[in-house]
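Lab notebook page, bench 4
Experiment: in silico fold of construct C2
Operator: M.H.
Input chain length: 466 residues
Purpose: comparison with the prior construct
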Amino acid sequence: MAVADAPRDGWTSRRAFLLAAIGSAVGLGNLWRFSTEAGTNGGSAFVLFYIFCVILIGLPVLLAETLIGRHGQSSAPESVRKLAAESNASKHWGLIATLGVIGSLLILSFYCVVGGWVLYYIWVFLGDMIQTGLAGGAFQGRPAADIEGLLPNLFGDARLMVGCGLAFLAITAFFVARGVSSGIEWVASWLMPAFFVLLVLITIYGLATGAASEAISFLFTFDFSKLTPEVMLAAVGQAFFSLSLGMASMITYGAYVGRDVNLAQTSGIIGGADTMVALIGGLCIFPIVFAAGLSVSAGPGLMFQSLPVAFQAMPFGSLIGFAFFIMVAFAALTSSVSLLEPSTAWLKQLTGLNRLATTLILCGVAGVLGTLAALSFNELADFRPLAFIPIFAESNFFDALDGVTAKIMMPLGAILVCIFVGWIADARLIDEENGLDGALHQFWRFLVRFLCPIVLGVIMVTGLMS
C-alpha cells in the first residue's frame, strides 16, 4: 500500500517544466551519441530521417507519457495505476512504469560513469589552460597520440574512474534531494540557458575557425542514396533515445505539471528544442573535426579523443576545450537528475521516507552498480555478468547495463505505454489531457495505436538480433 504524500512539490511555471523536460531530453545523447551516429551513418541521410522520426515516433510517445503523469499527479507507477483504475483496467498496468523506474536507475548507474569522464576532461583542460595560457592551442608540444591516450589512461586508472563517476553521482543526488522546485527546477532554470549560450558561442567559433562549408554539406546536403535500412534504423533509435522515452522520466515530470499547461504544445517545444540542440551540436563538432583532418566516423571516441586533438590546432584551444566540456557537463547533469527523480518519487511514496533518505538509498544502489560499471574498463574487464544469455555473452558489466536497458527495457516500456494509452485507457480521460483537437488528435491516436508500437517493436527485435 502506497503511503500518501504531503502536499506535492511541483514546477512553479510552464517555463520551468519546459526547461526541466528539455534538460531531461538534452544530454549526452544529443552531443556524444548524435555526433557518433551521424558520423558513422553518412551524415545528411541520417539527419533527415532522424528529424522525420522525432515527429512521427518521438513526439507522440512523449505526449502519451506526460499526459499519464499529469492525470495521475503521482509517482510514475501510481499514475499509471490511477489511470488504469479509472478506465476499469487491471492495476497491473502500473508495472509498465515500474519497469521504467528500474530502467532509469540502471541507466543512471552507468550514465554517471560517462559523466565522470566529462568531469575528468574539464579538469584536464583546466590544468592545461593554467599551464600553457589561453592564446595557443591545447596541449602545446604534445603528440596527438598522447592526447588520444587521455581516455585509455583514464580507463586504466580504476580509482580515478570510480572517483569521477561517484563525484558526478553525488552532484546529481545533491540537486534531486533538494526537491522539485528548489533542486531539479533550479538546475534546469540555470544550467539549460547557460548550456544554450555556450553551445551557440562554441558553434559560432567552430564555424568561423573550422571547415564550416564541409560540415554543413556533410549534415544538410541530403544524399538519398545513403538512406539504407541500417541508417534508417539508427535514426529511429536516436530519435527514441534522445527524448528520454521509455524510462518513466517524462511520466514523472508530467506529474508536476499544472492543469493550465497544454501538453501537446509543450511536447512539440520539447521535441523541437531537443532536435535543434542535436543539429547545432553537429555544427559545433564537425567543423572542428573536418578542419583538423580527422575522421567523422571515429565512433564513440569522436568527442573524447578526436575533438581534444582538434583543439590542439585551434586558437584558444584550451579555453574552447574547457568551455566545451563544461557545456557537456551541464547537459549531462540535467539528464542525470531526470534519471534519478522517477525512482526517488516512487520510493518516497512507497515508503513514506523523506526525499533526502530516499535519494541517499537510491544513490547507494546506483553507486554500487556504477562502481562495477567503472571497473569494467580495468579490474573487472573480463567479468561477464550475463554470459548465460547469448546476446550479452561477451558484454562486460557496463555494456550489460547499457544493453539490457537500451535493447529491452526502454523500447518495451515505450511499446507498453503506447498500448496502454492507445487501447486500454479510457479515451475520454486521454482526450481531456492531450490538448489536441480534430484531425490532429485522430492522427496522434493513429500513431500511438499503430505506427509507434510497430516501429518500436522493430527497434527492439533488431537490437536483440544485432
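Observations: The radius of gyration is 22 Å. Residues 19-465 form a domain with the Amino acid/polyamine transporter I fold (CATH 1.20.1740).
Next step: discuss at group meeting.
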